[in-house]
Amino acid sequence: MLARQITGCIAVGCAITFVTVGAMAFWMADKYDRQAASASRTMMAGHAVNAWQKLAETTSDYAWRNDALPAYRRKDKLWLDANIGRAVTERSMAEIMVILSPTGEVEYVWGQSGEENPRHTISTDVATAIKHVMQPWSRDNSARTLLARGPGGVLTIGAARLAPRNHEGEPPGTLPILAVASYLSSARLLREGRGFFIDDLSVIPTAEPGKEARPLRDINDQVMGYLAWTPKRPGRELLETIFPPLAAALLLFSVVMGMVAVRGQRLVNALGAAARQDPLTGLENRKGLNDFLDTAACRDAMARGQVAAIYVDVNGFKNVNDTVGHQGGDSVVCEVAQRLKDALPEAHVARMGGDEFVAVFTGQDARHVARLAARLPRAMQKPFEVAGMEFWMSCAVGYSQCAGEGGSAVELIRRADIAMYNAKSLGQKEPLAYQPSMDAGKLEKKHFENKLRAALANGELRVVYQPIARARDGAVHSLEALVRWRSPDWGDVSPEKLVSVAEESGFIREIGDFVLARVCEDLVHWPDLRIAVNVSPSQLREANYVRTFRQKLKKHGVQPGQIEIELTENVLLNDPLPVARKLTHLRRLGVTVSLDDFGTGFSSIGSLRSFPLDRLKIDRSFIRDVATDARAAALARSFIAVADALRLDVVCEGVETQEQAQTITASGAAFLQGYFLSRPLEVDEARAYVGRSKKAVAA
Length: 699
Ligand code: C2E
Ligand code: MG
Ligand code: MG
Hints:
Distance between the termini: 44 Å
Structural class: alpha/beta
Bound molecules: ligand C2E, magnesium ion
CATH topology of the largest domain: TIM Barrel
Largest sheet: 8 strands, mixed, barrel
CATH superfamily of the largest domain: EAL domain
Number of strands: 24
Strand content: 15-25%
CATH architecture of the largest domain: Alpha-Beta Barrel
Number of domains: 4
């Protein structure tokens, strides 16, 4: 799973890198190309302005000569040839020069030497266009420029009145016009285009995609064609240059990431295998065994009743460790593991920790588990040799066949374990089969207690919190702390069983200390809330209970007012006086005292008066039927009335439905606790719950 996640992450990382690098490269190339296209447009626009200006200047240079108009009037062709026409015939200043009469007829035309019929070029349309642009006459007789379609293509034309610059006294319409024209020929455009790094400047009839185009308009604003060019694409060129090395780099990157993925996968697999393996013996550990028991094949076998387990506890390690040290002990553990595998080649063998091993059989072998288990004491008979010395080990063996209908793997192992514990406690050399009677026996309890002690030491215990809310509006009033144990061998263990075994053995004090310490730590989340802890009779019987209780709170900086203790009625039956004294003490400190599971004990209502209590918690067995049974409802009402008479708050436990909540709230219960409000919650969930409840009440 993790390996797949790593590979997935790397694949996504590669894809993101590819897409990002590719997109960046294309984006940059496109940006460069746009910049270059824009620059070429600016240059072309600038060039056009310059060209028109130059044409206008050249035209006016010739048209404004002082002696030109008199020569025209004299019809002095020789003078005009030599001084005007020479600009095209000899100097190639333009392709065609023409003088139009004031009425617009072509009078003189000069063409370059190659020009075959210059008069033909200045068609009537062209002449009309020239005359047309000269209509608006200004005082300075400035030159005009225009584009016109000639027989050989688009012409650029400069035109001015043939008269001195500030010629006055004659209306402009009576003066001749000098015009200078040149074709926008391919040769000319190529030459001009190269001036600013454009190779294909040309005139095209319609705009083409991929080409820049400026419309060429005649004097009527009609488009005659387009001045077109292909802009340089430096971005594309750069992209083409960098593409091969970039592709190679990305390929290399993906190869390296592929290698990382493969290695990561191997590493994760190795770590996964290591997490399931006992490093000393190479056998599977508890987790490995659980994984095996959880396989589909194993679950199928379980459903068919074809699974069995042998639990082995090897004795004698203390002697080995004391004599040859722990290294010697380790080598014996390895030898034991080897002998187990050799003795039970058909089994799935795991080391559960220390000197405990489990062998699991599936299929037909499971039926013969008794015969198979019998091999083990024999396998241990031979002495173990360490550092030249011989050690004799023994083992206690218990076994169990499938845990019965609906049985779980956890239960199967637990049964084999309890059978082994019986064999061990009875000093039995031969394997013992699990019997249901073992569960109720003293040995089972002792075994349970041992496991519980180890659980507290190993941090397997935790505390959950169940909200207690105000009946009126559902506001969280306090939380009850409840102990929980998830055993790696047995799964979630019933708190009732845990508490009763711990109470019998006196271990409940350690558990009580653990719960109180955890509550004090968690109270930082709830500075304005009270937490109730359950206190067992044997805890309260401790001589220094109140003093140590106070010290513990002080150590954690918790105010006694933040703690409530819950006691059951049987506490009040034995030694009532010392208990009452302690409770008085606690209440003086500010601790709230509740009587838990009220109604299930044997205390008389009268005796309750003599105990310093704050609250009564009516046991859930009296709440169960309140919504459906009138007598149950009446009983609950009378309990509430008793509490009222004793001036005690009432908490109703085990409220599971809305109907129950409504009935007992109507009966006057002040506080509710139960699955209807919330199940017991892990500390983080409880924090969130309290936060939500505060918001809801505030709203
Ligand atoms: P309790 O003090 O009466 O705690 C309430 C029990 O009722 C809890 O069971 C809780 O999970 C259960 N409960 C709450 N609401 C509902 C409901 O709506 N329906 C039903 N059916 N049950 C509900 P849990 O946690 O199994 O505890 C059982 C008993 O074990 C507790 O009864 C308490 O007497 C004892 N216990 C739990 N934690 C501790 C502890 O830390 N120390 C001591 N000394 N005893 C504890
Ligand atoms: Mg309680
Ligand atoms: Mg209770």
